[in-house]
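A.,

Following up on our hallway conversation. Structure tokens first:
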């Protein structure tokens, strides 16, 4: 079935993020630094405040449950319900907080609408996270649930379970003068046998407790949106840097807190056979992947684990040790990759050695 539908013809706001071009009918909060001149070639078009009636009716009549994430408490509404129509062209994401998205995977359109109690700031946080993340996955881009840092022109990734400290470590690198590639979603691509990362956008998301008492960072940071727990470090400010380009990925560090009782931080190699399973557990929103998408992902990760060093990082459970952990990562990265070391004066200037 081919549906005729309308989108907002006027899409004056264009952005470059995650290696793709977005166009939207209104300005997207959080992407002020990623705005670009209008282009004829657009990867994803975002229309706000409505869903085309024909597509809405199609979803109402024919969509079936694709994924369900129950509420966090017993009596809570479902946090997320995803439905798809036969043929998997349209996906309907409905969040318990009162925001919904319809994704057209064939023509790369996204429509969104929300309840009056919410703001577009709230909506943008879902859009720039799981919605664009799912569209990337559908387009065949494998994404790690990771932060990315640029060191000597090469990328290192820090991955691990939610709340493991990926963003906190990235913030420590940012405070020391190192450019940040991305936070939360790390898109990967391969060219001539080399894996490259793509740049995200200029907000590094942090829980308040993750940066309190860390001397290199401010004691207070702005909230992502009113009512949200997380804050953000503005990488577009004069104090920090966002690397707005791709970079070759050299090492992936997998955070492991299972040995949090230990007295010293350790970094150890992970065999490629073991690394594939660890990486598969830490790809972005892998719970939303179809069987076909998951199969393609495993193929990509097998190649990734054979060509990129994967290391296990077991840190000490003490926020005051974050600068030391950063210095250990830098030393390990330089040793593993064979890249020329920064001299001591430059390291000290960047804050890599305390």
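Then the amino acids I'd put at each of the 354 positions:
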């Amino acid at each position: 079935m081919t549906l005729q539908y309308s989108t907002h013809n006027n899409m004056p706001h264009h952005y470059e993020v995650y290696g793709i071009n977005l166009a939207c009918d209104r300005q997207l909060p959080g992407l002020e630094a990623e705005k670009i001149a209008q282009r004829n070639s657009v990867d994803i078009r975002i229309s706000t405040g409505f869903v085309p009636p024909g597509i809405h009716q199609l979803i109402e009549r024919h969509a079936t449950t694709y994924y369900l994430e129950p509420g966090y408490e017993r009596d809570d509404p479902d946090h997320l319900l995803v439905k798809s129509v036969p043929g998997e062209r349209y996906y309907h994401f409905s969040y318990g907080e009162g925001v919904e998205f319809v994704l057209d995977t064939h023509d790369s359109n996204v429509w969104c609408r929300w309840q009056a109690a919410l703001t577009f700031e709230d909506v943008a946080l879902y859009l720039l996270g799981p919605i664009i993340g799912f569209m990337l996955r559908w387009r065949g881009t494998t994404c790690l649930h990771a932060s990315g840092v640029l060191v000597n022109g090469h990328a290192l990734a820090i991955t691990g379970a939610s709340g493991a400290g990926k963003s906190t470590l990235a913030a420590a690198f940012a405070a020391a003068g190192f450019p940040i590639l991305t936070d939360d979603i790390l898109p990967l691509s391969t060219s001539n046998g080399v894996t490259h990362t793509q740049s995200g956008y200029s907000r590094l998301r942090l829980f308040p407790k993750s940066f309190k008492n860390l001397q290199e960072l401010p004691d207070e940071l702005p909230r992502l949106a009113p009512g949200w727990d997380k804050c953000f470090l503005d990488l577009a400010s004069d104090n920090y840097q966002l690397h707005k380009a791709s970079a070759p990925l050299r090492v992936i560090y997998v955070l492991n807190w299972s040995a949090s009782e230990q007295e010293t931080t350790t970094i150890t190699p992970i065999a490629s056979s073991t690394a594939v399973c660890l990486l598969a557990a830490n790809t972005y929103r892998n719970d939303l992947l179809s069987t076909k998408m998951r199969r393609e992902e495993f193929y990509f990760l097998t190649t990734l684990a054979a060509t990129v060093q994967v290391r296990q990082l077991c840190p000490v459970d003490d926020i005051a040790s974050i600068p030391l952990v950063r210095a250990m990562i830098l030393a390990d990265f330089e040793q593993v990759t064979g890249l020329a070391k920064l001299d001591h004066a430059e390291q000290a200037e960047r804050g890599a050695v305390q």
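Residues 120-138 form the longest helix (19 residues). Curious whether your intuition agrees with the design.

B.
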